[in-house]
Design a protein that fits this description.
single chain, mainly alpha
Amino acid sequence: MFGISNFEVFLITAILLNLTPGTDTMYIVSRSISQGRTAGIYSALGISSGVVVHTLLAAFGLSVILTQSAFLFQSIKIAGAIYLGYLGIKMVMEKSHGKEQKALPIQSNKKIFFQGMITNVTNPKVALFFLAFLPQFITVDAGAASPLPFIILGLTFTLTGGTWSLLTAYFSSMATSRLRKNAKAGTILNRLTGIVFIGMGISLLKTKAAS
C-alpha cells in the first residue's frame, strides 16, 4: 500500500532503534537533569522537528532519483543494506563507556527547542541513516516515485521516536541517577539492535540478488 513494503518490519525496527541510547537521548536526559522536565520536553520536540526535516529532504530527494532511474534507486537500496549491516556490526562490537550525563548550561525553552532541532538536522549520521533506511521499505513499482511513501515512513519514525523522547524527558528528571548508572542495559539494547540491522542487511541483499 502506498508503495510501502514490510511496514510491520519497519515499525518494529524503528521502535527498537528509538529505544537504543544515542546522541538525541543523551541530549534530552542532559537537559532534563539541568533544567527539569519542561526543558527535556522542549528538547524532545526540537529533536522530533529535526527528524521531520530529514524526512522531507530524504522523501523528495529519493523520489526524484526514483523518477530519473529505477536502477539507480535500486543501487541506493543495495548500498543502504550494506550500510545497515555495517552499522549493525559496529553496534554489536561497541563497548560501553559508562559516561555520566553532565548538566548543560541553563537556557530558555525557545533556545532549547531550536538547539535540539539544529543538533539533529546538522548531524550527517542521521541524514545518511535516513538515506539508507527508508528506501529498504519502498517498492519500485506504481506509486513509488511519489514522495508519499517516504513521508509516511519518516513520520512514523518521527512519531515513535517522539513518543520515546517525551517519555525519556518525563521520567529522566525523576530517575537521573538510575539512568546514569544503567550503561549495561543500554549496551545490551544497542547490541540487540545491531543484530537486527545485520539480519536486515543480509536479508535485503539476498532478496535483491535474487530479483
